[in-house]
Design a protein that fits this description.
Oligomer: single chain
Distance between the termini: 53 Å
Bound molecules: heme C
Helix content: 55-70%
Shape: globular
Radius of gyration: 17 Å
């Protein structure tokens, strides 16, 4: 998508995007959350390694939170072909992305959370 470069530039200019945020290192929380979904530390660190070495050849990385789990599954299947990675690299990459998605980023200040869905709380008419 043509928007990626532009978004990256805008984000870099604002100085709010670092590699640590785009590809968060595997911390304790990530290990625990990964384990809950059947991904061990080796899988996660291999997945991150694939992400950092094979997915930045044609474009910059986008915030992992930007895509849903289903979107990542589709994107990774498509991009695995682009990056010419094997099935093991592909599944480890997906494991890393899905796990990183479930972990809150370390610095909440520099991460713009998706606006919570407007759940209109029914207002009781004040009397
Ligand atoms: C050979 C070049 C190439 C490599 C390597 C590559 N990509 Fe891409 N990527 C593209 C192109 C071209 C597009 C935009 C067109 C498209 O969506 O198919 C794209 C788009 C994307 C998008 C945006 C998709 C969307 O729906 O907006 C994401 C996310 C992405 N790539 C992730 C990855 C990941 C993860 C990897 C590593 C497995 C990767 N890319 C490796 C070329 C590449």
């Amino acid at each position: 998508m043509a928007g990626i470069g532009l978004l990256w530039m805008a984000a870099s200019l604002l100085g709010c995007v670092s590699l640590e945020q785009l590809a968060p290192p595997i911390g304790d929380r990530m290990v625990v959350i990964g384990r809950d979904h059947g991904f061990d530390l080796n899988t996660l660190s291999h997945g991150r390694q694939v992400y950092l070495s094979r997915c930045i050849q044609c474009h910059n990385l986008e915030p992992i939170q930007r895509y849903s789990q289903a979107q990542w599954q589709a994107i990774v299947m498509e991009m695995a072909v682009e990056a010419k990675i094997d099935t093991r690299q592909t599944s480890d990459l997906l494991a890393y992305l899905l796990t990183a998605r479930r972990v809150e980023p370390p610095d909440p200040k520099s991460h713009r959370k998706a606006a919570p869905k407007d759940k209109a709380v029914p207002q009781s008419p004040s009397s």
